[in-house]
Amino acid sequence: MKRWKQILCLVLLALFFISVDLTIYFLFTRRCASTFGSATAAKAIEPADYLPFGENSGVVRIDGVQTLTGELPVLDGAAALLPVYASVFSSLYPEDACAFSDGSYTPESRMQYRNTRGAYQAIVDGDADLIFCAKPSREQLDYAAGKGVELELVPIGREAFVFLVNEKNPVDNLSQQQIRDIYAGKITNWKQVGGANRLISPLQRNEGSGSQTQFLAFMNGTPTAHSPFAFLGASIGFSFRYYVSGITQVEGIKLLEVDGMAPSVENIQSGAYPLTAEFYAVYRKGEENENVQRILDFLLSEKGQQIIEQSGYVPLS
Amino acid sequence: MSKKTYSRLFNLILIIGLLSVIALTVYTVIAYQNASVLNYIAEEIW
Question: Residue of A118, A203, A245, A270 with fewest CB within 10 Å of its CB?
Answer without folding.
Answer: A270
